[in-house]
Amino acid sequence: MVPDDAVDPGQSLGGLSTELLEIAMVQPPGEDNEPVDDGGMRTAEQARDVTRGFLLLAAPEGGSAGDAVLLVVSELFTNALLHAGGVTGFRLEAGPGTVTVAVDDASSLRPQSLPMDAAKPGGFGWHLVQDLSADVRVQVHPAGKTVTAIVPCPTGVMRQG
């Protein structure tokens, strides 16, 4: 969640309103979630825009690691739209040296790795997510699944203890 004191309500952050940032980061997974259709995000481009705004706050020195987070967001969001019945939730969370990306979708089918074949289009996204992430988890639940990727990225979050 965007800290209350980070920006003024309605203020634009990297071209994004704080309201759109809030929509992206607080929608929890659940049995009643439908694909996002509330004037919020509908495309991977919108998800990347929200992620850029999030990274401005959470990982301003992210550099190429921030680019990795953007690629993971793009792949997970696009896969949910194309192969899993739509996006039902999207969350970003900064941790010590990581950004967690979670995308909920309407399908209970787990992502499948396709054989890598440079002569055929597609099939590289799931491999890319796994290569860029320290950990990737798929949790199936009654309303579909949540795919969570933990991406190494320098953040302002300090370790506890």
Task: Tell me briefly what this model is.
This protein has 161 residues and is of the alpha+beta class. It has four helices and six strands. Helix content is 33%, strand content 23%.
Structure commentary:
The protein is of the alpha+beta class and 161 residues long. The protein has a single domain (12-152), classed as Heat Shock Protein 90. The chain starts with 11 loop residues before the first strand and ends in a 9-residue tail after the last strand. The model is unreliable at 1-39 (pLDDT under 50). The strands form 2 sheets. The chain has a 4-stranded antiparallel beta sheet. Strands 1-2 form a two-stranded antiparallel ribbon. The longest helix is centred in the middle third of the chain and has 21 residues, at 63-83. Helices cover 33% and strands 23% of the residues. A hairpin with a 2-residue loop joins β1 and β2 (16-17). The chain has 4 helices and 6 strands. It has helices at residues 18-26, 44-58, 63-83, 125-132; strands at 12-13, 16-17, 87-95, 98-105, 135-141, 144-152. The radius of gyration is 15 Å and the shape is globular. This is Histidine kinase/HSP90-like ATPase domain-containing protein. InterPro entries: Anti-sigma-factor_SerPK (IPR050267), HATPase_C_sf (IPR036890), HATPase_dom (IPR003594).
Detail the topology: elements first, then pairings:
Elements: E1 12-13, E2 16-17, H1 18-26, H2 44-58, H3 63-83, E3 87-95, E4 98-105, H4 125-132, E5 135-141, E6 144-152
Helix pairs in contact: 2-3, 3-4
